């Protein structure tokens, strides 16, 4: 396992904004997993941490194919996570509505551009997503209907439901949609909770990712 700094933004009043990743296996861009992009996605951050722990064990046991590379980005928005605010604290903008980003634009556009530049080119991508409405949900995996979707791959997660969703204009600035446009087979993995830790739901998500990898 090696830790990588994907993006850094200097701050005048607090520690620098940093997006870090953990890489396992070889140099091939096989799978990238992105955890919380919003400040209330506690469960998604926890799932990403569990995946780092599981992948580290698999790597130590020699159970990751030598050429395959797995990357986990636990958090893409640590500032909002620190204050438990769902969107960017300064202007209430949503990083997951800023992709593929613009490196000379507003702050969240620059963050999205810096992150997306590093996670492009992977064969598969998994976003640990949260729903915008409160409540408990059945764990499931979603794909957007583009020219690159493959519902057969979504079924390999082994979850109760695989949802194929027709994108609307609002979706074209999400990370998942842009991943697919740039030739990554992208999936959104939904857990049962968002702003609280659900260990049982997290283990279900980790097992689903491991089934897909197998």
Q: What is the overall shape?
A: globular
Mean pLDDT score? 93
Strand content: 25-35%
Q: Number of DSSP helices?
A: 6
Total beta strands = 8
| Structure classification | alpha/beta
Oligomer: single chain
Q: Helicity range of the residues?
A: 25-40%
Number of domains: 1
Order of helices and strands: EEEHEHHEEHEHEH
What spatial order of strands do you see in the largest sheet? 1-2-4-3-5-8-6-7
Main β-sheet: number of strands, strand sense, barrel status? 8 strands, mixed
Radius of gyration over C-alpha positions, nearest whole angstrom? 16 Å
State the name of the first-level CATH class. Answer: Alpha Beta
CATH topology: Aminopeptidase
Description:
The chain is an alpha/beta fold. It has one domain (2-213): Aminopeptidase, CATH 3.40.630. The chain is built from 6 helices and 8 strands, in the order βββαβααββαβαβα. The protein has helices at residues 42-60, 78-83, 107-119, 151-154, 175-181, 199-213, and strands at 2-9, 17-25, 28-36, 68-75, 124-129, 140-144, 161-165, 185-190. The protein has an 8-stranded mixed β-sheet with strand order 1-2-4-3-5-8-6-7, sandwiched between helices. The protein is globular.
Short key terms for the protein model shown above:
single chain, 214 residues, alpha/beta, Aminopeptidase, 6 helices
Question: How are the elements arranged and paired?
Answer:
Blueprint: E1 2-9, E2 17-25, E3 28-36, H1 42-60, E4 68-75, H2 78-83, H3 107-119, E5 124-129, E6 140-144, H4 151-154, E7 161-165, H5 175-181, E8 185-190, H6 199-213
Task: Offer a quick outline of the entry.
The protein is an alpha/beta fold and 214 residues long.
